Amino acid sequence: MLEIKNLHARVEGKDILKGIDLTVKPGEVHAIMGPNGSGKSTLGHVLAGRDGYEITEGSVTFDDQALLELQPEERAALGIFLGFQYPVEIPGVTNMYFLKAAVNAQRKRNGEPEIDAMEFLAWVREQVKTVKMDVAMLHRGVNEGFSGGEKKRNEVLQMLVLRPRLMILDETDSGLDIDALRIVSEGINAMRSPDRSVVLITHYQRLLDYVEPDVVHVLAGGRIVRSGGPELARELEDKGYGWLDNAA
Amino acid sequence: MSQIANVAADAYGRAFAALPQALREARSGAYARFERERFPGKRIEDWHYTDLSALNERDFAAAPAAKAAAVDALADAELLHFVNGRRIGGPARSDEAGNGLADDGVTALNAALYRDGADLEISGSAPRRIHLYSWIGGGTKPAMVHLRHRIVLRRGSQATLFLDLQGDDSELLSTQVAEIDVEAGAHLTLVRLQSLGKASTDIARTEIRLGRDAQLRYLGVDLGGALARHDLNVQLAETGAEAHLNGIFAPADRTHADTHTRIIHAAPNTTSRELYRGLVMDRAHAVFNGRIVVQPGAQKTDSEQHVACLLLSPRAEVNAKPELEIYADDVKCAHGSTCGQLDEQSIYYLRTRGLDLDAARTLLTYTFAYDALGTLADEPLRRRLGLALLGRLPDGRALEELLV
Question: Choosing among A93, A106, A151, A170, which should be mutated to test the B contact, i.e. which has the most B CBs within 10 A?
């Protein structure tokens, strides 16, 4: 599904990613862990198509399509979703209409007709239950005045509604209390299926207690320095990231 | 015609000469003042960025006779319908002696030449809701229209007044003066939409006096015209008066939009809040001048002013200036003025959800303006103004459904 080869990226003259190789197959959950400044978030944004990164080497394909040449909205329509570490507030636009605009924009790009408004409303209300939010929030501005945890749940709601095939979640677990973490995890698990893949970018192991990864990668200094099974995450939790200084 | 021999032989003199004799006599002072002052040029500080002196040489015919046309009337509101400065389907404002506001060339011309306008006296406790719709246009050569409104809210009364200014793309000069008196304890919600055509010159003056504990909530949305100037002057004349001024100006193409607000705290314990949002597109030029005056003795004045502008193209230009004049010592006055571009992070966020670049930009532009628009509690009116604004933004119509 996702094939990253020897990816090098640079921001403002500084090399951040220094040769990433990563293959994510359909149905797999990959966790990318690592200390602050290791390039985890950069990787997420390079995949989602943010401006300002210079790709100096390497390639990314999604379903055998060259990804790096596409605009963010084209990637979204292909089924790539980035859950933001810091979701943006958009006062003046209700969540409900934002969701609908996003779905319809993607459908239009894919040559599909607009979604039926009534069916869509019912469908969205179902998803709101999964993230245990008040239905009233659908009629509030997007993330407007939301707490950190509410914003993250709203990211998961968008994901549930948009039904992406590749979900990249950038520290969706940060700043969550244990109840919110459980809710967010349930949302992610609800999306798991043989044809969907997840890339969890996280600093801590605790999310992985709820969303069991197939593969755990450790990113440090812009490279994947170790990959392993779920046990690698627990090892990191015990040892911290300090040992990487010696390994790198 | 001997009594008008001293009238200038230009469009304005001809228009004055064409008035009924009684009006000419009653308004000779106003007209004489216009003759003395004419339209202001940039050497006058208040008109530095908006030079009207070219109007002195222009030739404007009287606007074509009023013809009724369909109006998208505001629901549950009384409709006052004006076309080319004349009331449709109701009595004309009784012609007056011309003793209203005439303190500069423009207001003097308006005082001399206006033929109609709303003349409302609102009293009692039942809230009134009034849609004052003015349409101008239809001419084949440059034409001028002058309207003058007088509105009094008697003690303790409540009203929502929607000044809705529309027009076509014919070449027009429009002047409008509104004199509004909000007496003790009365509450006025004043909403003004200026959505004139692209060849209009619109010069408007709104003069509001607030009595003891009176409240004003103003929202203005200025969208149209080739050259538009609005002077909004609010006097907090008695203790406890409160004014909330919010506005949006959104000039596009090569147009010029100038908003001057002046809030005068003339009594103790008065409060004002002002928030403006400017969206400047293409090669447009916006001017915002917000003056706050705290007069001697107006202790415990509480005043805040915020203006922020978005420059949406490299050739857009804005001159925004707060001006504080404080002559009392026990006051709270805060102000802030910013100018910038759309937030790249927000554009990116929307694009990752599937919206294309233009849709994302328009959505965020609307959102920026919503800081002012959202202050209007009246939902149908807010929606109407939101639609008018979206109609002026690139691909905005596609986003109509997004309105809160």
Answer: A93
- Mutation target to probe the B interface, by most B beta carbons within 10 A, among A42, A73, A74 is A73
CA nearest to B399 within chain A: A101
**Distance (Å, rounded) from C-alpha B259 to C-alpha B289?**
6
Give the pLDDT mean for B20-27: 92
CB contact under 8 A, B374 and A91: yes
What are the distances in angstroms from CA A107 to CA A78, A114, A156, A162, B347?
10, 7, 20, 10, 20
pLDDT, tens only, B372-404: 999 999 999 999 999 999 999 988 877 777 665
CB-based contact, A73 to chain B, within 8 Å? yes
Q: DSSP alpha helices (H): ranges in B18-163? A: 21-26, 28-37, 105-113
Which pLDDT value is given to residue B233? 98
Instruction: Tell me what pLDDT residue B1 has.
Output: 43
pLDDT for B2 equals 41
> What average pLDDT does range B347-373 have in this prediction?
94
In sequence order, the 6+-apart residues with CB closer than 8 A to the CB of A96 are A121, A124, A138, A139
Residue of A nearest to B344 (CA): A51
For residues B320-324, average pLDDT: 94
φ, ψ at A211 (rounded to 5°): -115, 105
Alpha carbon A191 to chain centroid, angstroms: 12
Q: In chain B, what residues touch A121 (CB-CB under 8 Å)? A: none
The answer to whether B271 and B397 have CB atoms below 8 angstroms apart is no
A96 in B contact zone (CB under 8 Å): no
